[in-house]
Amino acid sequence: MTSNHTDYSIRQAFDPATGARMGSGELRENFHIGDLFIPGRINLTYTHYDRMIVGGATPAGQPLALEAIKPTGTSNFLDRRELIAVNIGGSGTIEVDGERHALESRDMLYVGMGSSVTFSSNDAGSPAKFYLLSAPAHQKYPTRLIRIGDAKRLDLGSQETSNERSIFQFIHAEGVKTCQLVVGMTQLAPGSVWNTMPCHVHDRRMEAYLYFDLSETARVFHFMGEPTETRHIVMANEEAVVSPPWSIHSGCGTANYAFIWAMAGDNVDYTDVDAVPMGTLR
Questions:
Q1: Which of 16, 105, 119, 228 has a 20 to 30 A CA-CA distance from 98?
Q2: Is the pTM above the cut of 0.70?
Q3: pLDDT tens digits, residue range 54-94?
Q4: CB 179 within 8 A of CB 137
């Protein structure tokens, strides 16, 4: 569906038994999100998993205003929602209620409930690519810009287990306050390909991944499903995937890559996960 410069689609929620019966095509249709960064467009996917919206805004030439879409049932997009935008493209600006915020690649902006938002690129030839995440909000928190250098960094894993990586927590308990959005970025070191393995589930929160920094021919095999009924979706550069609360969310690439992970649900506690023993996986 289209409104001026905005396209949107809707993804219904599925139970694990239904997910286990899906083939590759059905899995892609219901959980994979492509075409996020189309120059001059905003592309949004409204999911019925905690009402999370996953999207992309790619201003090229003219600024792009964040407009309401029918599924939110509100006059303005953020009337009852909060928003996070992470730039993975060229330099750009996000104007929030008349105040301009400059974002370089990998910077993040949190925008509270009730705000108006407009996206711009500094150079239409190398446009900003704003990855968008939005969830329902119960109160307004202040707009906050978090640069990648100011994010909470954790270095984990090893070359021996092919998962040497740096985790950048944009949202954490000691930092920006949100109603329910939690967002961070993981960068895998050269030679490392595994993320979130050993894996876990958290039935209290859904999750979405955006894979990027992949070459044209590289791919990530994203694993999902219940631990005893795993499935996979093949992901290319700058594609996203939705993970239901009952599903694992893990991936293995043909080369190293980066990904942005985001959650919405009952709490923002990173440690509130249910670990999956390796022997359980099927």
A1: 105
A2: yes
A3: 999 999 989 999 999 999 999 999 999 999 999 999 999 99
A4: yes
